[in-house]
Amino acid sequence: MNVLHTLRSSAQLQQEIRKSRFLAQADRVDSPDEAMTSLKRLSDPLATHNCWAWRIGALYRFSDDGEPGGTAGRPILQAIEGQGMDRVLVVVTRWYGGIKLGTGGLARAYGGCAAECLRLAERIPLVAMTQLRAHCEFALLPLLTARLPEFQAEKLEETFDARGAWLSLRLPRDQAGGLRHLLTNLSKGRAIIEPEWKD
Asked: Is the same domain home to 54 and 16?
């Protein structure tokens, strides 16, 4: 499976196509509410159209904002998908220059502007994360703590009871099996490991 990417920081690209000015702006968004807040901030109420699309995992939305159906929002969404991006909003604003582009020309302009903006943007890989809660005896705690970096695990919380320590850990999902195996071996099967949640 190909690794999806998201934006390291916001990006923008401006193009002039047959006297119309297009401005593509891309933002990282982690929820639908955040996407709609960013959309309001990036849209220009004085422009002819503010067309947009966002994708966050399996969720997505798009809008042609008055352009002919299927000529703007969907091509922008296809640009997001074609660039292997997720957790991204792209707004393409158009200031009409007096020359009609036709439906094919509009789809190419909106989709192309969005794709080029994302292609040039600085990106980072999205890694699926999980969180585990583990209990181990006091004697194992220093060794386990020392080995956490091997699994890219981050200790979120540490609490103690009469038998040992409870650790809340966050780590890449594909590393969780290895950490479980290590803890089971170190504790000779006495450790308790509970899943908490997954991104």
From this structure: yes
